[in-house]
Amino acid sequence: MFKVVTSRMIVPNMHLLTLEAPAVAREAKPGQFIILRAEEEGERIPLSISDWDEQMGTVTTIFLNVGRTTDRLSRLVEGQQIPTVVGPLGNATDIEKYGTVLLLGGCYGIGSLFPVARALKQAGNKIITVVEARSSYLLYWEDRYKDYSDEFVRITRDGTKGYKGHVDRLPEIIKDLGVTVDRVIINGCTYCLKRGSDATRALQIPTWVSLNPIMIDGTGMCGVCRVTVGSVTRFACVHGPDFNGHEVDWEELLQRRKTYMPEEVVPLRTSKSKCEEHSQQR
Amino acid sequence: MAEPKKKKQLDLVRRDMPKQQPEIRSHNFSEVALGYAAQTAVEEASRCIQCPKPKCVENCPVEINIPGFIKAISEKDFKRGIKILKEKNCLPAICGRVCPQEEQCEETCVLVKKGGQIAIGRLERFLADWEAVQGKLEMPHLPGKTGKKVAVVGGGPAGLTVAGDLIQLGHEVTIFEALHKMGGVLVYGIPEFRLPKRIVEREVDYLKKLGVKIRTDFVVGKTQSIDSLLEEYDAIFVGSGAGLPWFMEIPGENLNGVYSANEYLTRLNLMKGFLFPEYHTPVKSHKRVAVVGGGNVAMDCARSALRLGAESRIVYRRSREELPARLEEVENAEEEGVIFDFLTLPLKYIGDENGWVKQMEVQRMQLGEPDASGRRRPVPIEGAIEIIEVDAIVCAIGNSPNPLIAQTTPGLEIGKKGNIVADEETGQTSREKIWAAGDVVTGAATVILAMGAGRKAARSMHEYLMSH
Ligand SMILES: Cc1cc2nc3c(=O)[nH]c(=O)nc-3n(C[C@H](O)[C@H](O)[C@H](O)COP(=O)(O)OP(=O)(O)OC[C@H]3O[C@@H](n4cnc5c(N)ncnc54)[C@H](O)[C@@H]3O)c2cc1C
Ligand SMILES: Cc1cc2nc3c(=O)[nH]c(=O)nc-3n(C[C@H](O)[C@H](O)[C@H](O)COP(=O)(O)OP(=O)(O)OC[C@H]3O[C@@H](n4cnc5c(N)ncnc54)[C@H](O)[C@@H]3O)c2cc1C
Ligand code: SF4
Ligand code: FES
Questions:
Q1: How remote is the CA of residue B425 from the centroid of ligand 3, in Å?
Q2: Torsion-angle region of residue B132: left (phi > 0), alpha (psi -120 to 50) or beta?
Q3: A233, B277: Cβ pair inside 8 Å?
Q4: What is the ipTM of this complex?
Q5: Where do the DSSP E strands lie in B135-257?
Q6: Cβ proximity of B245 and B465 under 8 Å
Q7: pTM exceeding the 0.90 threshold for the entire prediction
Q8: Chain A: residue nearest B352 by CA?
Q9: What is the pLDDT of residues A221-276, one digit of tens each?
Q10: Which of B218, B219, B240, B258 has the most A C-beta neighbours within 10 Å, making it the best mutation to test the interface with A?
């Protein structure tokens, strides 16, 4: 069993969870993920590692509440336990001295890019952090990036802070900053990864994305996480999760992620009907 | 005056084991075979002629004293029977259910020529189940501690055997398992209707009672490397299995609705997807499922699909005679209504406008000249290309060892197929202090072979530990 050390909502619908998992904390590297189960009957789901503390033996993850497991996770309180935390899984993000690296984070990616920013900064890179959200109130962790990022740029779809629009504005941002970017790394939801990769293709900047297909074991056993990259089939959990964003078959990934969509709403439907039943009884 | 002793008449009638009726069992995940009643077991055991040089034993990978335990059953001394059985096989309830007996012990039983070979597997299962209902497990007497620590990687049959053997020799044993449940393929692959998971749990509990420590959710090579484990442990056994699924690399394999056998079975078994939404891992209900392959894995997938309500077919490129699956399971599948498309090779999978698989283009084959394996090779019938309508495909054409440990353990010799190279007799790998056995060494094989190899490795590890 793995103990919950911290659990809180950091912005609406986005939660931070710190778990006691010393073996994972000891080996964690930027860009890796864990797989957890929230309860005995639960599904195994992958979540990126957003930070860790080897001394305390804890790992932190940030997640968007989208379905049954993340909903359950969001209700956990300090001191509760969950049955499975396994990791660190996947390959670490390549940390080298590239020169100027632009990190683009949306959604939970703002969290999961944080250790990447830290490590790349320590490796001597100039770091440009770009964070993206629907509105400014959904942005978080700006203070944590302070020491590790040379430029900090915001994009909000409603224009409440920074650039207005989507990650498509990346080329403009780069131009405005007047820098040559040697590498782009994107974390976040699939659309953000895809559109970000599209935006850097014309600029010919090497772009790496952390893919998030459906997973079960996370060790290469089930093959559900397969993605086509450069016309080769790869297992995201063992060959990735980072891949060259310009080579990913995005249509296929978006398609495969929808496999269980009709089923995922079943429990929501049934719990709703229970709720209705309940209110009728009263 | 006593009658002159008459030679016992040969009884050549194998006693049937009751099963759930096909119409019923094809709609549930409960165990198909129900096991012998005590009376039937005694009758079946009494048919054994107790050969002085028992042929059956020669063909048993772990050399169980077969006539010995059978005699005990015939004398209704089940307690003695299970004791004899367990001398050589620590997982009898499992082997009694899944071993390919018809090509092992039963194949060489002297009565096979007369068509009445003893149902050794069923008797094995009977004793194991009898012991379980008795409730009282007899715990072996454990020797004093040697002070040596052993790490076992992987909680499948190989790892369980090594752990059981080494703890009974006084060593301290910890099993590290990547998944959240112990048992390897026994829990994530083989379905409930063939091997109820509580049986595997029982065996694992027994090991725990003997003092084996268990760390699930621990991926060796990720959570900690072998070399780092070696700082704490005196020896390591690797039994990580062959869990990396193969695909055919034909067009359309990444369409929605195309699964590896491992994904399909893991959702159902390990994650109990057949109980969705009570259990949270979703499985899709399909109308027409085609399973590609002809081994045990393929049968398990096809029979699972059937139980989830689909029309289910096996697509296999050779003919029925060449099916590598256990005969009993092929027959079960046939009875339950699985359709078999023999001499059929998938060429590509065709999707609909939303990226879901809808058809499978196949090449019909015929048998040609025998190949190196002596089996007649399937060759395409020119122009015989057809379309099979499907809404799901399960690819069950094989697995190879996961490269994780190979990649993270420098100096470990790896074979061409990604397998760990280990001595057949001792399980010793190219590195000191590291042993390996089971599917990770041989490629996908059988439970009993993994156990047999594990036992040899345990012996060799014990020798090493006691002399270092
Ligand atoms: C390597 C990897 C790392 C990941 N890291 C993170 C992370 O750090 N934080 C995080 O929040 N998520 C992360 N994800 C995605 C996360 O695994 C899924 O959001 C999670 O499985 C959803 O589980 P659930 O049971 O709550 O929802 P489900 O019941 O499985 O899904 C509910 C519905 O939401 C849709 N859906 C699923 N995921 C998302 C999503 N991310 N955005 C929008 N819709 C979605 C599904 O298609 C489904 O229809 C990662 C995925 C991978 C493969
Ligand atoms: C669907 C199916 C049906 C089968 N039917 C039969 C049958 O009827 N009869 C029969 O005799 N055989 C059958 N087999 C084959 C048999 O199950 C295997 O040969 C046997 O389980 C091999 O045992 P093993 O211990 O070597 O490996 P496995 O059973 O594969 O166990 C390996 C274990 O190691 C774990 N592991 C892997 N990597 C790591 C790591 N890095 N760190 C920690 N743990 C790790 C895995 O999670 C797994 O639990 C079947 C196989 C399948 C897939
Ligand atoms: S070979 Fe057959 S008859 Fe002879 S001892 Fe073995 S099981 Fe009995
Ligand atoms: S999640 Fe199973 S192979 Fe990647």
A1: 27
A2: alpha
A3: no
A4: 0.90
A5: 149-153, 172-176, 213-215, 235-238, 244-245
A6: no
A7: yes
A8: A255
A9: 999 999 999 999 999 999 999 999 999 999 999 999 989 888 887 766 655 444 44
A10: B219
